[in-house]
Write a structure and sequence with these properties.
Helix content is 52%, strand content 10%. By secondary structure, the protein is mostly helical. It contains 13 helices and 11 strands. The strands form 5 sheets. Strands 7-8-9 form a 3-stranded antiparallel sheet, with no helix packed on it. α5 packs antiparallel against α6. The protein binds glycine. Glycine (GLY) binds next to loops.
C-alpha cells in the first residue's frame, strides 16, 4: 500500500507544472512605462481613463462615474513600489480631481471613488488635506443607509428585464464600500459607521447568496427591509453567477473578517473562494468567463477584472486560512501569472496605455465588452504589491 502511495506521489511530482514566481519588479517596470504614456495622453484631470471605445479611441469618464478613483489609486500603487516622486505628484493631482465627489449622496460607490485614491494617498503620505475629504465622503455614503431596512441603498432606482421598477436596489458590489466606512469609523470615532457596515454585511449575507455560496447581483428591498425580488443587471441571468459579482463578494467578506474578526465572515469568504476555484466552468488559467453560466462557454469573453480582484482577495484570505493557505496563495499566483502573460497583458504603447486586456464591463448592456478597464489594472497592481510583500516576508 505504502509503495502505491509513493508511486502516486512521485507521479504527481513528475506531472505537476512548477509554478513560476511572478517577477514583480518587471511587472512594475512595465506598468511605469505604460502609465507614463497614459499620463501624457491625459493632460486634463476632468477626463478619467476608463477603457477603450468600440472604435478603438480612449474611453474617458467624469469624476462622478463610479470608477473615477481607480486611476489615482493605481498611481499611488506605482509610487508605493517605485518610491519615485513623479508618481506621487501625478497621484496627488488625480486624487484631488475626485475631491468634489465627497458631497455626492446619489451613489453608493464613494468607497471606490474616494478610498482608492485618498485612502491609499493618506496611507502612504499622511497628507492632512486628504482626511477631511474622506470623512465628509463617508458621511455622504452613510446617508444611504436606512436603519429600518438595515442596508445601504446602491442605486436610486432599478428596472429589471421585465420592465418592473424598484426603488431600493442593493448590489453585491456594495460590499466593497464598507472598507471605507470602517476606516472613517476608526478615524472619527463614529461608531455608527462601524455598526451600519456590519448591519449591511449581515443583511447581504442573509439575502444575497444561494446555498452554493454564489451571489445574486441585485436584491430589491421594500417595506421595512423585506426582499421583494432578486435580479441581475450585468450578469447573464437572474439565476446566473456574474463573475465580477463573485469577485466583489469574495473581496468584501475577506475585508469584513479583517475589520471585525467575526468568523462568520471568514467562513463566507472561504465558501465563495471554493465556489470560484472549484467551478467546472473556471478555465485552466483561472481567469473567469464574464459569467460562470454564460450560455456559449467556452466561446465567451473572459473578465480579467474579476480575475485581478479575486487574486488580490485570495492573497489576503490565504493569510487567514491556515488549512487552505497554500491553495489560495497558489491560485492567486496562477491568476497573476495568467494576467501577466501575453494572453492578457498589453504590449508597451498599445491598449490605450492600460496594462490588461480582456475585461467585460456590462455585456447585457452591450457596453465595455472585451476591453481594458481601469479597475482591472488597479486590482492587478494591488495584488502584485500584496504578493511582493508576502514573498519578502517568506524569504
Ligand atoms: N460596480 C459595477 C461593476 O462592477 O461593474
Amino acid at each position: 500500500m505504502k509503495k502505491i502511495a509513493l508511486f502516486v506521489a512521485l507521479l504527481g511530482i513528475g506531472t505537476a507544472k512548477a509554478q513560476r514566481p511572478i517577477n514583480v519588479r518587471e511587472e512594475f517596470a512595465f506598468a511605469a512605462k505604460q502609465y507614463e504614456q497614459m499620463l501624457k495622453a491625459h493632460p486634463d484631470t476632468t477626463k478619467f481613463p476608463q477603457s477603450t471605445n468600440p472604435d478603438g479611441s480612449p474611453r474617458n469618464m467624469s469624476s462622478s462615474w463610479w470608477c473615477s478613483g481607480f486611476f489615482g489609486g493605481s498611481l499611488w500603487y506605482l509610487y508605493e513600489y517605485t518610491k519615485d516622486p513623479v508618481w506621487k505628484d501625478a497621484a496627488h493631482r488625480w486624487t484631488m480631481a475626485v475631491a468634489k465627489e465627497q458631497y455626492n449622496t446619489r451613489t453608493h460607490d464613494l468607497g471606490f471613488m474616494l478610498y482608492c485614491p485618498f485612502g491609499n494617498g493618506y496611507r502612504l503620505t499622511k497628507n492632512p488635506a486628504y482626511k477631511p475629504i474622506m470623512l465628509t465622503g463617508a458621511k455622504s455614503l452613510a446617508t444611504r443607509f436606512r436603519p429600518d431596512y438595515g442596508v445601504i441603498k446602491s442605486w436610486e432606482t432599478f428596472k429589471d428585464r421585465a420592465g418592473q421598477r424598484y426603488d431600493y436596489p442593493v448590489i453585491v458590489d456594495n460590499m466593497m464600500n464598507l472598507e471605507f466606512l470602517f476606516w472613517a469609523a476608526r478615524e472619527s470615532g463614529d461608531k455608527q459607521l462601524y455598526d451600519l457596515s456590519v448591519a449591511h454585511a449581515d443583511k447581504t449575507l442573509e439575502n444575497h447568496f444561494r446555498p452554493d455560496a454564489s451571489s445574486y447581483h441585485v436584491v430589491l428591498y421594500g417595506d421595512g427591509g423585506k426582499v421583494l425580488a432578486r435580479r441581475t443587471h450585468q450578469g447573464y441571468a437572474d439565476e446566473s453567477a456574474w463573475a465580477r459579482g463573485q469577485a466583489w463578494a469574495l473581496y468584501g467578506y475577506t475585508t469584513m473578517y479583517r475589520e471585525t474578526k467575526d468568523k462568520k465572515y471568514l467562513t463566507q469568504a472561504q465558501r465563495i473562494a471554493d465556489f470560484y476555484l472549484k467551478h467546472p466552468n473556471l478555465p485552466a488559467d483561472k481567469v473567469p468567463y464574464w459569467d460562470f453560466n454564460a450560455p456559449n462557454i467556452p466561446n465567451e469573453e473572459r473578465d480579467a477584472s474579476a480575475g485581478a480582484i479575486v487574486a488580490s482577495a485570495l492573497l489576503e484570505l490565504s493569510t487567514y486560512s491556515p488549512k487552505s493557505k497554500k491553495e489560495y496563495f497558489s491560485a492567486a499566483e496562477q491568476i497573476l501569472q495568467s494576467l501577466a502573460s501575453p494572453a492578457y497583458k498589453a504590449k508597451l504603447g498599445e491598449n490605450n496605455y492600460f496594462l490588461l486586456r480582456h475585461s467585460v464591463g456590462h455585456k447585457p448592456g452591450k457596453s465595455e465588452i472585451d476591453v481594458p478597464l481601469v479597475y482591472a489594472d488597479y486590482y492587478f497592481l494591488e495584488a502584485l504589491l500584496r504578493y511582493d510583500a508576502m514573498q519578502k516576508k517568506r524569504s
